[in-house]
Amino acid sequence: MLSLLPVCMALYVFTVCGSETEVLTPRRILRNNLKGKELNVITGQFIPAISIVRNSSGHVVGYSDFLYHLLVYLSQRLKFTYKISIIRENTNGVKRNGSWNGIIGTLQREEADLGLSPFAISLERYEAIEFCGSITGDSTGILVKYPEPIVSSTSAIEVFSIGVWIGWIISAAAVVGISVILSHISKKFKVEADKRGVVSHDSFAWYLYGVLISQGSYLPSCPWPLKLLAATWCIVAFVFVNIYNSTLTSYMSVTYQRPLINSFSDLAASSTFKATVLTGSIQDIDLLGSNSGVLKTLADKIQKCSPDCRRFNLNEMFALVLGEEPYVSIVPWTVGIAALKKHNLEREKCRLAMAHETMSWKPMFMGVPKTSPYIEEINRESLWFIDTALFDYLHAQYLKKPSQCRLNYNAKGVSTKTFKNRVILKQFYLPFLILFCGYFLAFLQFLREKVCFLIGWRC
Question: Which stretches of 121-162 are assigned E, i.e. beta strand?
């Protein structure tokens, strides 16, 4: 009887779960207030989140990009239809004299049911509208002109770090100093100096130099301690010189790329570059609300050059960066990526890049009126959308940098690129400079010896 107890318990549990569970723990009925409704949707041109497709005559023929796909998904899941209107001023909203314009103003006045725009949360915005339907997060970056590749004229010495060069100079000086000490000790104690001789410190220094440049040098007969010292130097110099030679050619064929404005500190300190920002964006709000530091400096600079620096159209901002005057744009990271995809693929020459520094990552949502009865449904189905493969696909396209003209920054904000061509003359500026300095010094030494000979001095 005891052996049958687990089986009976299992059957009892199965029966309860199969038939009685609906009575004991009824399933929650999900609300769908949107079914059969028509939503008034307000939007604008906010690439890459939402784009307005126009024909050659300028008439609207459709919409595209991430938010539009999300709207289509919500309408199919929640069984509603929609009518899209375009905001007259292409802005999320600017608060002036206590009232909002743009999409936020339209939602606040309940003239639309859904704002199809990427909203980042701020206290002012939250007081006006409700946020729902999480879409993704975004950071703030700086859109700049694509930096021209720079060939370092000092690449011959940049193979090693400053610490390595200082270490070798100290090592060479130490070897010369030790040789001088050993020479004096040998002379003082007369350690067979008459048979083997003691090399002078200047002769030993020239010997070290000859070994270092792989040209060889003559070392006069000297005591065994000096010979051992010279042999040790030869072994270490052999390793050093071969490492240098093996990496020099490849290192000289590398170009460096760093935008003139590569951080917000660079932009705040610059007296020539101007920054543009999209009016009503979270970047505009952050700058206007800053009280100190770099952001406060940038906000003051933007206020001084308004309205040129505060725009309602992203394409106008891109055009200013591409123009002759020194402009950069403070934009969401994804907006900058969209600009790279558009302008770096139109022509063979790279035109735009994103600076190294980013800041202020923030989650983003769609917007609805405070009194909207559809918040729960939109939030629920937006979470389902995030769980689908469609979200992953669109999100990857949304954030992926174009492979062309990509700058892969290191920790110092510098991007390097290897030439596919042969080594060119610009990469030999430093060696030729050293050669001409050698010509000049040799000529001066010749004149010095000539003068000494004429006046009978010993030089």
Answer: 130-145
